[in-house]
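Ticket reopened. Same input as before:
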Amino acid sequence: MICQFLSLEWKQFRRASYFQKGLAIKILLCLAVIYFGGLAVFVGVGMYFGLKKSFPDIDPIIMVNNYLIYWIVFELMLRYFMQQLPVMNIKPLMIIPVKRNAVIHFLLGKTMLSFFNFISFLLFLPFSIVLLLKGYPTLNVILWFLALISMTLSINFLNFLINKNHTAFYAIVGFLILNVALKYFGVFDSTATLGAVFNGFYNQPFYAVIPLVVLAGLYRANFYFIRRGFYLDAEISKKTKAVTTKDLSWMNRFGAIAPFLKNDVKLISRNARPKQVVLMSFLFLFYGLIFYTQESYKEMPAILAFASIFVTGGFLMSFGQLVPSWDSAYYKMLMSQNIPYRQYLESKWYLMVVVVILSFILSTPYLYFGWDIFAMIVAGALFNIGLNTFITLFGGALNRVPIALNVKAKAFSNTNGFNPTQLLIALPKILLPMLLFYVPYKLLGFNAGLITLGLSGVFGMLLKNVFLNKIEHVYQKGKYKTIAAFTEEK
Amino acid sequence: MISVQNLKKSYQKIQVLNIENLEIPKGESFGLVGNNGAGKTTFFSLLLDLIQPSSGHIKNNEILVHESEDWKPFTSAFIDESFLIGYLTAEEYFYFIGELRGVSQADVDALLVEFEDFFHNEILGKKKYLRDLSKGNQKKVGIVAALIGAPDVVILDEPFANLDPTTQIRLKQIIKNLAKNNGVTVLVSSHDLMHVTEVCERIVVLDKGDVIKDIQTNDATLKELEAYFAN
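Engineering reply: fixed in the latest deploy. New output:
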């Protein structure tokens, strides 16, 4: 039985659309997997030596244990947003004589092979090997490693339970923030307490049984959870909540593009995938923190210009690059309807501009880093509005990947919007602002760079109609190809 | 109203549609029948400029469909679920289509009242997204949405499939009225010979892309069609 399931899975994997996309993507995907895998291994090996060097008087493993809780919470968050719940097409299996339990065990077993489980594995396996080579007690290290893996798998299963329940997730996030705050203000250092627990797994190796028991418990919980839902009218069929409709008629003031704008607002607020994108783009607001806080970047303003683009342009880039794809499910209808392409594109443009402006308002706290940085964000925002929007829309025309709206994106198993053209079109978005800033900066000075970057945006806004006409033409030309690609498969 | 000349469509040298000449006058209810792969949906897709003809052309009210978009204001269609926007409620979808076709909310509401019977209390005020409706109910929404904005040409692909018997009977009435009272040119495809013969004044049989029969419907038509498809 298991063999048959495996063969079904293998076929599903081999025959999935993203594998039939062409060699270039396969190679890129492989490279990405190798890159991230290699990175994890590298960090895992380097961790020991890095910690030894930075904190010579603390044992690296104790240091790792002390901060392990942050890793675990980070992993949980990552999974919460990125990892799909296990799905297997069980509808056709329900009426044929297959033991229900076998299906569920298989389903749960399958999740253990998730990409997310390998992150911990790739990170801590090399670290453990280094420990062993450095002469740490073999049994302790091995059992500590096993405890870690059990915890990773526990998180795997915990995530599936939490995913059904948002309050649980926010409780965990709240708990984390509280801990960080308590530590920051010196009230109570929870890392030491929790660190002691993790150190326990190392010092008293047989404590490693505890996470194993937790893992078994969570597995059982998941098992019964799925088993309860193993009926057509239970979990398999999606629950439909009564819909509350908001009155968006105030948007009618936007005139001809209002119907599309209203539709886009609904698109974003009612579908899993766009919601995810919006959330990610919100995180981009904090992108500047990585760069503005580092002394070493102060001398490299071109890099800072790059960061400034992302602070206000997160949504623009992540939402905008998939522009016709968002409407892929009903593109045929749009194309046979009485609508000018122009209005459709213009409404997307306005949406992006409005969000750039919103992000800009939200980014005012960056004033803390001084006027220079803030001026950079202003220039970046202008560039985003005036040029980046058009580049992104133009790139969208070349992007013909249908999107399943109400399905979260999966890491490495979803190539929606991921293709070589997309990578090529992403280059000008990143390089152009850096060039626009860097060349005048080198020749004339900091202010000249800022002014050029900002003016380029203003210039772009003046040419809005020219750009939109050009983009409309490209969309028009690709119409049949786009329709064919969007109807291919869902 | 619709004029087809030497229309050919092939994929990788395999011809899927080949119509030499076909004239559909204004106000005719036109039925298209044929087995799977006969080219019905291909023809409708060409009519809506969703695919490009390999050669030949279609004129909709003297407008070359694949060159100008001016046929769009007076033509509407429901081909399949991909014409629906899954994350809208039925009302929102009707209003959206209304806005695209320049019909106010009040006018859309007025039109919807006429279809209360057809909806059978399962569409309006349900607070459900279209993606959560049953196939049949989705179809009802799509068909009615295609009638918003008083189009001159209405194209319905397999409108009877997935509908319950009551709704099928009501739909037949709606289609007949469209052609008879409002002078609308209605193009319908179906696998159900009985329904088409009842609704359509003229029936064209397609087979592997070729026009096999072109019949003005009369009392003997159903027998004739049944005899043809039995072989």
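Residues 411-417 of chain A have pLDDT under 50 and may be disordered. Chain A touches chain B through 30 residues (CB under 8 Å). Please confirm and we'll close it.
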